[in-house]
Design a protein that fits this description.
The protein contains 16 helices and 13 strands. The chain is α/β, with parallel strands linked by helices and 470 residues long. The strands form 2 sheets. An 11-stranded mixed beta sheet has the order 1-3-2-6-8-7-12-13-11-9-10, with helices on both faces. The protein has a two-stranded antiparallel sheet with strand order 4-5. Bound molecules: glutamine. The site of glutamine has 13 residues, from loops.
């Protein structure tokens, strides 16, 4: 092994910015650095379990923009020759023969894929406890959840004592929830900004690939790399490539901030609301103006989301039948018996619940009453946000209604109570607008998140506002 040009540097360096500067200057022996990172990762894995798979093969061209920066990837995003399971037993052992488009971009820029992070099976959850492999533990308190479904991404970001960025994914809040619970920064981009090619779908009309990291700069920097048009994803948007870090140079003077009162209502921890208000006042002191508003459609978001999401999910899961990839069984009996055996054995409880709910909601006779009605509500939610963004640059709210819950508290939640925890994240996710969660402060040593939302394709405003607060 080559000896690092500065051994101590590899141990001490924590920030992405410093890593990039030093690497550019040629101060770092990348292979040596990465082998140290792998040692540290093993220790973190023992303590907190953020990974389903750790990639121990240090190979690739570590140059360009990323210089070998360690990147963790949520397990629902395909990585060539690295096991990709979407957190499900039904995909155990699946080695994608290709990279998702965002991964191809990261590799092209010289990033190192550190491993595949733990998640709720196919993204079905809010606490990263519906897991077939490992349940990540919160680095602030190991008795508590990291949030979900991208729990492993939040966990490794908070725990990493080395420069690192996580690639995560959100359908209804899976980037915001773990960012809030782990005191990190999570950017969920506008739907269609980042190619979904190579993403194992949860609900195609809502899935978004995004970023979790320690600093706003890291998030803006990585977003600039993975965003952009991709002919392989028909929903990807044709927009010019941009360096989003430039939005960190702007200030919030004159910016208009809307504060939706429904996001501070019943079920929201008052202590979190208080911290969020302090941040809004901080923005005011920096020259922004705020005004309280009402988004009355918010109360319909959860029921509508859980109909649309499970309808799409149950359709997507139909392909896991034991014949194409992943888990299988000895072929015996008729097709129905064979499929049922593979699926009963390998899907978790929550996946089964969603298959049943989704199949029901799409059945002839119920389609109009449930699925089509939910789509109408979704349109109304989008219109309500659009109206708000005529007046406001950014909306501010708490990220999650609760502090990181303990595992024993989560185990006691009924499915409906569990779904209610998504009350603050579902509407913006359904609307496909971009959002960022950043630390608002701590309560009894536990992190609480501030959520900023903007109009479609206005990630720049989120980066400016989050940067000002940071
Ligand atoms: N908690 C939500 C759900 O279970 C959202 C999860 C996600 O964004 N993948 O559907």
């Amino acid at each position: 092994m080559v000896i690092s040009k500065d051994q101590k540097l590899c141990d001490k360096m924590k920030s992405v910015k410093e890593f990039l500067q030093r690497a550019k200057a040629g101060d770092i022996d990348i292979e040596d650095f990465l082998s140290k990172v792998l040692e540290k990762t093993e220790k973190i894995q023992e303590k907190y379990q953020p990974f389903i798979t750790i990639n121990k093969k240090i190979e690739g061209k570590f140059s360009k923009k990323l210089f070998g920066l360690p990147i963790s990837v949520k397990d629902c995003i395909c990585t060539k020759d690295i096991q990709t399971t979407a957190g499900s037993k039904i995909l155990e052992g699946y080695m994608p023969p290709f990279d998702a488009s965002c991964i191809a971009k990261i590799k092209k820029e010289g990033g190192f894929i550190l491993g595949k992070t733990a998640q709720d099976e196919f993204g079905f959850g809010t606490f990263c406890t519906n897991c077939a492999y490992v349940v990540p533990k919160n680095p602030y308190d190991v008795e508590r959840s990291c949030g979900g479904s991208s729990g492993g991404a939040g966990c490794i970001t908070a725990a990493a004592d080395f420069p690192h960025i996580a690639i995560a994914e959100s359908t209804g809040g899976s980037i915001t929830a773990p960012a809030a619970f782990t005191g990190t920064i999570g950017l969920t981009p506008t739907y269609g900004r980042v190619s979904r090619f190579g993403l194992i779908d949860y609900a195609n009309s809502m899935d978004k690939i995004g970023v979790i990291a320690k600093e706003v700069f890291d998030v803006a920097f990585m977003f600039s790399i993975i965003a952009g048009y991709d002919p392989l994803d028909s929903t990807s948007q044709k927009l010019p490539e941009e360096d989003f870090t430039k939005y960190l140079d702007k200030d919030v003077k004159g910016m208009k901030i809307g504060v939706p009162k429904e996001y501070f209502g019943e079920g929201v921890d008052e202590r979190i609301a208080k911290l969020v208000w302090q941040k809004i006042k901080q923005l005011e002191s920096l020259g922004a103006h705020y005004e309280e508003i009402s988004l009355p459609m918010t109360k319909y978001a959860i029921p509508a989301y859980y109909i649309i999401a499970v309808s799409e999910a149950s359709t997507n899961l139909a392909k896991y039948c034991g014949m194409r990839y992943g888990a299988t069984e000895e072929i015996k009996g008729n097709f129905e018996e064979f499929f049922a055996k593979v699926r009963s054995k390998n899907f978790g409880e929550e996946a089964k619940r969603r298959i049943i709910l989704g199949t029901y909601a799409r059945m002839a006779g119920y389609r109009d009453a449930y699925y089509l009605k939910a789509l109408k509500i979704r349109t109304k939610i989008i219109q309500e946000f659009k109206q708000a963004f005529k007046k406001f640059d950014v909306l501010a709210a708490p990220s999650m209604p609760v502090l990181p819950l303990r595992f024993d508290e989560i185990a006691k939640l009924k499915p409906i109570e569990n779904y209610m925890m998504d009350i603050l994240t579902i509407a913006p996710n359904m609307a496909g607008i971009p959002m960022i969660s950043l630390p608002a402060g701590f309560i009894n040593g536990l992190p609480a998140g501030l959520h900023l939302m903007a109009d479609h394709f206005q990630e720049g405003k989120l980066i400016t506002t989050a940067g000002a607060i940071e």
